[in-house]
UniProtKB/TrEMBL annotation:
<dbReference type="Pfam" id="PF01980">
    <property type="entry name" value="TrmO_N"/>
</dbReference>
<feature type="domain" description="TsaA-like">
    <location>
        <begin position="6"/>
        <end position="130"/>
    </location>
</feature>
<comment type="similarity">
    <text>Belongs to the tRNA methyltransferase O family.</text>
</comment>
<dbReference type="InterPro" id="IPR036414">
    <property type="entry name" value="YaeB_N_sf"/>
</dbReference>
<dbReference type="InterPro" id="IPR040372">
    <property type="entry name" value="YaeB-like"/>
</dbReference>
<keyword id="KW-0949">S-adenosyl-L-methionine</keyword>
<dbReference type="InterPro" id="IPR023370">
    <property type="entry name" value="TrmO-like_N"/>
</dbReference>
<protein>
    <submittedName>
        <fullName>tRNA (N6-threonylcarbamoyladenosine(37)-N6)-methyltransferase TrmO</fullName>
    </submittedName>
</protein>
<dbReference type="InterPro" id="IPR036413">
    <property type="entry name" value="YaeB-like_sf"/>
</dbReference>
Amino acid sequence: MTTYKVNSIGTIYNNENSAFIQLEAPYIPALKELDGFSHINVLWWFSDFDNEDFRSVLETDQPYKKAPEKMGIFATRSPVRPNPIALSAVEIINIDYISGLIKIAYIDANDKTPILDIKPYTPSLDRVENPQVPDWCSHWPHSLEESASFAWENEFNF
């Protein structure tokens, strides 16, 4: 098995009042020309779930109410996985290019979560016109915007 070294480039701060990304000083120049993009893809580390027990889980009991009784971990968005990497598309509210602070609308990460990378969201590469999903989750929202008002608490078994 090959291993790789990955370094955090910053931290997600997330509470009931705001969400933002604070880049480490050496990475601030990488923000150049990000203005104009409305959204970014944020790759982050499920740091609260990084241990050998969680990394060995390959199947899980029904995590979603309408899902099959058993699911492979790759068919879920669970933080419990072989490599605890997450991907979230987020809306940019403001970028402070001097301090390296990116204010975002929302992210599904815990406070003080490490960031691995940021990429601009581009519809030509990141949007699928007609994605297909299994019947058990076909009633879920079709966009990030619709997700904001969806009753996600009614979907999970945890």
